[in-house]
Amino acid sequence: MKKKSATISSLIAGSISSLAFGATNKLFVHEKENVLPETDLNKVQVGILNDSLPLYLAGHRSHSSHRSHSSHRSSNGGGGYTSPKPAPSDPLGKPPKPDGSQPQVTPGQRERLKRAMEDADKRRNIIMRVQLTLSSLGFYKDSIDGLMGPNTRAAINAYRKQKGLKQHEKLDVETLNSLGIRAF
Amino acid sequence: MNNVIRKDIFNVAGEDIFPGLYRVVDGNLQTPPSLLPDVIKDSQYLITTNCIARRSENGTPELSFPRSGSYIQSGDIIQVQENNKIRVLLSQLANSNTLLVTERCDNKCVFCSQPPKNVEDDILLANAAMALIAFNSPCQIGISGGEPLQYGDRFVRFLESLSSQQCQTPLHILTNGRALADLNLVTALKKASKTRLVTFGIPLYSHSAAVHDYLVGAKGAFQDTVAGIINAAFAGFSIELRFIPTKENYMEIPEYTHFVVKAFPFIDQLSIMNMEPKGWARNNWKDIYVSPFEYAVSLKKGIRNLKIGGINMKLFNFPLCHLESAIRSYAEKSISDWKNIYLDECLSCKLKPECCGFFSSKTEKFGDQPRGINDEEKICNY
Fold first, then answer.
1. Which segments in chain B show pLDDT lower than 50?
2. Cβ contact (<8 Å) for B210 and A56?
3. A24 vs B210: CB contact, 8 Å cut-off?
4. B27 CB contacts (<8 Å, ≥6 apart)?
5. Residue in A63, A82, A181 closest to B312 by CB
6. Minimal Cα–Cα distance from B15 to chain A, Å?
7. Contact assessment for residue B101 and residue B144, using Cβ atoms and an 8 Å cutoff
8. pTM for this structure?
9. DSSP states of B157-193 as a string?
């Protein structure tokens, strides 16, 4: 529920509007278009008058100097990121396919995933990474617990449906490759 | 970019390594497992340029870095890309760490150094979560984009997932603040960061909506951003405001700072930043860049307003030779090391140890030239 405080917001609207000088000339002219409408500020949470002054308003905290980090590597040319398209084939063997198609998953890889999922720690680790990834992609909304519950399964299958992957009861190499997760 | 202070991207030769995120570990130690798979930092071999990848007996990849130890430490997080490159994502050797979580943005700032792209890059948020969890640093790490908060509720869950894995890393989130006009989102974000120090770095380029909206290329942005600043501050978040002097707003620095003092007295800091000649800034340079020498008077008045008003202020990305001596103390060594260089004229400069130097994207065409300061007169009088 959005809280409102009409009296305070009109106070603030007043003080902000009187300071919002026109930019196109150097005189202190109060231009109508720079006034913040009161109705918009009613959606804003303010609460000084009713409570004692909170600590964070009383003064400035000491700050640690930090870098400006105003820009950083974009995804191309230097890049950090490529979309989770089908991953290269078995890293111990052949180089990636040039046409980018989904490489054949080998029985060896399936076996290695099966064994990894039988190890309690590895299983939990794999499922947590799957949950984290699906959470960021918007498919999974529950807790990151490393457990294959019904919600986790549903999220995996919803992801598979969108990517055109086969639905399965268990996690498979194709899905992990698609998510960019190395599991073994 | 071969003379940056810290190289963070390497070509890799040798064995193929499955692309993805890895944590670097020391081969001689037994390190408890983390969320991410490990890559062993092998210091046995001396190599000069590329990384060499090998595979150890148990299948764990081993990496030798050039002059091993200068670039990478056990605990760092790297990303193996599909184009035979390795990028260091999070490093204990870096002067700052920042994670890019999206390239999408709802503003179009005329000087944007990271121009937005309409791509499906949600996987970046997942990678950021896993990297932060595995790195688990007590030092502040930056979150940037594009616009990180356009993830909305997914960003709330991002914060929750960090806490659920005992990662309390303080975060400095660069945002245009517009999403914070939604009070529900702010409340949810606050709830998800109960035990985490979160600072929002929010650019505000004018006290006038017309100028701000013009500079960020979006009508209505000023209104949203101001509401966002107020909401976030009253919810208890730390706020850092950012201002970039340009041809459109440099003459009003005194009025702008006066406005900040009166309207946003609760902020942690106002950072006034020199423009980086990258991205759209480069394209629009002659229309928007203004030399620090030209706005020196305006800047000094603004700093005075802030000082009287009790607002902390910092100057970011200004080489000391471009500032009057009286205000040099506000300058920070603010350029991230992977894109930080010094020029030839800097070699003889007495102020080099305290100076942030230049962006690696700087060329003679963009921005003022360095003036090595090597006599007493220059140090005191500009």
1. 1-2, 68-69
2. no
3. yes
4. B40, B41, B42, B43, B56, B62
5. A63
6. 7
7. yes
8. 0.82
9. HHHHHHHHTT----EEEE--SGGGG-HHHHHHHHHHT
Could A182 and B211 be called an inter-chain contact, meaning their C-beta atoms sit closer than 8 Å?
no
Quick check: A63 and B251 CB within 8 A? Answer: no
Q: Phi and psi for B280 in degrees, rounded to 5?
A: -70, -25
Q: What average pLDDT does the segment A37-66 reach?
A: 46
Q: In sequence order, what are the residues at sequence separation of 6 or more whose Cβ sits closer than 8 angstroms to the Cβ of residue B321?
A: B349, B351, B355, B370, B371, B372, B373
ipTM, two decimals: 0.83
Helix/strand/coil percent split, chain A, to 5: 40, 0, 60
Chain B's closest residue to A53, CA to CA, is: B234
pLDDT confidence of residue A71: 45
Say yes or no for a CB contact (<8 Å) between B142 and A69.
Answer: yes
Q: Does B163 touch chain A (CB under 8 A)?
A: no
Yes or no, beta carbons of B276 and A16 under 8 Å apart: no
Chain A CB contacts of B209 under 8 Å are: 20, 33-34, 36
- As a whole-number percent, the residues of chain A with pLDDT over 70 amount to 44
Q: Cα B245 to the chain's mean position, in Å?
A: 18
Residue B54 pLDDT: 79
Q: Please give the pLDDT value at position A87.
A: 36
Which residue(s) pair with B39 in the sheet? B24
Q: Return the pLDDT at B90.
A: 96
- Maximum average pLDDT range among A40-54, A102-116, B60-74, B347-361: B347-361
Q: Does position A50 have pLDDT exceeding 70, yes or no?
A: no
